[in-house]
Amino acid sequence: MDLRLNLDDIDFERLLEKGRSSIPGLAPDWTDHNIHDPGIMLIELLAFEAEAQIYALSRLRRDEQLAYAKMLGVAPQRPVPATALIWPVEQNPAWSPGKGPFDRVLAEGTLATPNYPEAPSFATDTTQFLSNAKLAKVATHFADGKVADQTQINSKSGATFLPFGPTPCEDDSLVLSFTGKLDMADKKAVLILGVETPTPRTSRIAARPGRSWLRASLQDDNGSQALDIVQDTTEGMLQSGVIILARPHRRQTGAGFDIVLQSARGGLLRPPRLRRIAPNVVQVLQRTKQHEEAPAIGTGLPDQTYLLREQGWVGKPAFTVTELEFGGNSVWRQVEDFESSTPDDPDFTFDPVEGLICFGNGINGRALPANATLTVDYFTCRGTEGNLPAGLGWNVAGLAGIYGVNGEPCGGGGNTDALDDLKVQAIEQCFRKEPYVTSADLAAAANGLADLGVARAVELAPDSGKLRGTRVLLAVASRDAEGVSTPESETWLETIRVRLAPRVPLGQRLAVVAPHYVEIRITARLTVARTANVAMVGAAAAKCLADNLAAVDPKFPNKSWPFGRDVAALTVKAWLRGVDGVTKASDVVLYQSGTPVETKIAIGPAELPKLVFAAGDLTFQQAGETRG
Fold this sequence. Notes:
Layout: H1 12-26, H2 38-57, H3 62-71, E1 83-88, E2 104-106, E3 111-114, E4 122-124, E5 128-130, E6 134-141, E7 147-149, H4 151-155, E8 173-179, E9 190-196, E10 214-220, E11 223-227, E12 229-232, E13 241-246, E14 256-263, E15 276-279, E16 282-286, E17 288-294, E18 305-307, E19 313-314, E20 320-324, E21 330-334, E22 347-351, E23 356-359, E24 373-380, E25 393-396, E26 404-406, H5 419-432, H6 439-447, E27 454-459, E28 470-477, H7 490-500, E29 509-513, E30 516-528, H8 534-548, E31 567-568, H9 569-577, E32 582-592, E33 595-597, E34 600-601, E35 607-611, E36 618-622
Parallel strand pairs: 21-22, 28-29, 30-35, 30-36
Antiparallel strand pairs: 1-16, 1-26, 2-5, 3-4, 3-25, 4-16, 6-7, 6-8, 8-14, 9-13, 9-15, 10-11, 10-14, 12-13, 17-24, 18-23, 19-24, 20-21, 20-24, 22-23, 25-26, 27-28, 30-32, 31-34, 32-33
Helix pairs in contact: 1-2, 3-5
């Protein structure tokens, strides 16, 4: 609904007609109303000017539109550079780890070029150490002492593994074992571990420097030392990205060492699933360095501006404005506004949409002196043009041959927001700030938390045992393609509550709970056709039961078991009878927590069935056989 006043409700023709129609009453002696009359010409001129002014009144200036957008928390987005992860290839002996002198530092700003027509330039955004140590083994060490070797899966294209198992706990660890020494002399250099998951990188999960769901340590013959995680763009290995590790306190290791990754908070939001993890993955950003010289442009007048010659300015790292003087160069400082600037402060503001630098007026901020010469250094990006496909070969400056390949598309590149984009964002922002009034609102919001893996959610009826005014949301965690479920941990439930609580109406509280799973066991005797394969029919029957009783069906969420629906023996019998090769299903018995139930198992509104199989639950005989 558009609530703006429409002031532009009259045009030139109607204004002219109103003027002409007023003549007889206001000036009866004026009888010539034709267009050649000078008076009519003046009325036409006034009508033209009035229409222009009315049109202007009904339109907002650009600065006014930006101000209204800011009130809604919407600001113009600067161009966003695309990013890519370059995974090293093993076919190049010139640099391959373990095969030559590869220990080196890759400086920030090192150029990386993809083999793609007219591709923009990319560069590293950190000072990275490339190690000659070779990743020899990847293994999961569980808290109970068991070890799962993931080395082959980690190196196999398309295969996936659970680095901390299906139910991660604090003492589970992923151990990366290396052969060779690690010697990091440069204090600014970092060690980067690349992580690739079935879930691509998204903008929803923001990388938070210094915060991670993981903790890291380095172990060698000299003992164990903690490794600071500078940045984790994987959010605890839930999406593809990098884990950036700071330089070890002991810069040099022995002939072999381990990097150990564990949960830092006693668990993880969801059990991660990886395609691969490896060192020496290079993270690059699409950006180009620009250098401009503006000789003798200073006028000495207040509020002088300078327009950047290139578009697509990138905000990080910030650009530098330098005034060249005979006695030494003066570096100007970027500020949000001149409110706190004194007459001597060399401050400037920057409009990222227009690419306009504005200097002070001599009172709030120093005015640019007359004939001042400037140099401006900044970075630009090409927005969406940097979003390149996966599988490209990359050359990295200083390294011979093809360094690596981006396993996933280069993504994240975005263009500068236009005013129309801000209008759309403002409307979306208004909807996002609406409270969750109905149960459908609350459930839809919870189901929208894709990064938390919420598969199903429903608001329960008010509970007399809960504090009055408390709304209870029942949330079910997702299952991945392999059927591994996310445990509905207290941390997971609390994270959902924290996300949703700010938009619950004033005076209401929100509680998020997990369903209670009712353990169900089913026994039955199945008669199969003479020509059928008993083993295949048995597998199909077991799958049929599991699919029908699934709390979450990854492929067909609408087929998941409804809350509050009872499990009836006749229904189970019908399922089994529909399995290919089954001619008869008999002796169907349901068990709840080990106790047989005659007709059905009651499932409450906050409960879901959990099928438990035991050996011999399904027995088979082929048609025509005599039952012994």
